[in-house]
Design brief:
- By secondary structure, the protein is mainly α.
- The chain has a single domain (3-68), classed as Helix Hairpins.
- The protein contains three helices and no strands.
- The chain is elongated and about 50 Å long.
- The N and C termini lie far apart (33 Å).
- The model has no long low-confidence stretch (mean pLDDT 95).
Amino acid sequence: MRIDEVREQNIEDLKKELAAQERGLMNLRFRKATLQLANVSEVKEARRTIARIRTVIREREITETADAS
């Protein structure tokens, strides 16, 4: 998921996507541990997607608190 796609989503969708990505990362780790994962770079991509989502969520939290002040 690219950063543009992440920024287009609202906060509720981002939280749902974050949970789905974290579950997916756990499954990738299990598949890697059992040698069933052919492309190990999928783990790296999943981690980066999670980081992108968390970054956008945090950015929005910061702007909300700044606007409230």
